[in-house]
Amino acid sequence: MQKEIIVLLGGPGTGKSTLINELVARGFCCYPEISRQVTMKAQQEGIEQLFLEQPLLFSQMLLEGRIEQYKNALEEPDNVVFIDRGIPDVVAYMDYIGDEYPEGFVQACEDYKYTKTFILPPWEEIYQSDSERYENFEQAVKIQEHLIETYKKYGYELIEVPKDTVENRILYILDKI
User: Fold this and answer.
1) Which among 13, 46, 82, 101 counts the fewest CB atoms within 10 Å?
2) Mean pLDDT on 65-70
3) 123 φ, ψ to 5°?
4) pTM of the model
5) Range list of H helices, the chain
6) Which tens digits make up the pLDDT trace of 87-139?
């Protein structure tokens, strides 16, 4: 079987981390979203919202972390690896805020390709803000639009995961792989 590196993507609060946690509970190899770790580390250093205050630095740190996740996924003994958010997310967010970024961001999207991409749609009923998620639901919808545009630009076929129970969403994903 060929190595499957599968990314779960979607705007903030669409249920990605919940699905990753359930996949882990079922014994799948999964890599968590790293932006919360980057944000919390910055907060410990006195920067309340690194993405808002220094978006290029934040995005560079995310890009490096996501490239590392991709490379690590290639080395996993498991044939299927799930990742919460992918490399093109970094470009989509930078485009969302209207900031420029180095060519290396684009090159990374072209160099590291996922085998499948599952997108979770905005879902207002489950959306929650917290100390690391500063966007409101309307902003989350706009981010979703940028994610779709960016992933399609890099040639991905996005498989939309229906709004449903965690169990049914997991079964849908597993059926597609």
Assistant:
1) 46
2) 95
3) -145, 95
4) 0.89
5) 16-25, 35-44, 50-53, 55-75, 87-97, 103-111, 137-153, 166-176
6) 999 999 999 989 899 999 999 999 999 999 999 998 777 656 655 556 676 88
Helix (H, G, I), strand (E, B) or coil at 30: strand
Q: Which two tokens stand for residue 140?
A: 């989350």
Residues 6 or more apart whose CB falls under 8 angstroms from that of 105 comprise: 59, 63, 90, 91, 94
- Contact, 144 vs 121, CB < 8 A? yes
Residues 6+ apart with CB under 8 A from 75: none
Q: State the DSSP code for 161.
A: P
Virtual torsion, Cα 34, 35, 41, 42, nearest 10 deg = 160
pLDDT tens-digit series, residues 7-22: 999 988 788 989 999 9
Sign of CA dihedral 138, 141, 146, 147: positive
Q: How many CB atoms lie within 10 A of CB 123?
A: 16
- Please compute the mean of the pLDDT values over residues 65-84 and round it to a whole number: 96
Q: What is the pLDDT of residue 54?
A: 82
- 32 in Cβ contact with 17 (< 8 Å): yes
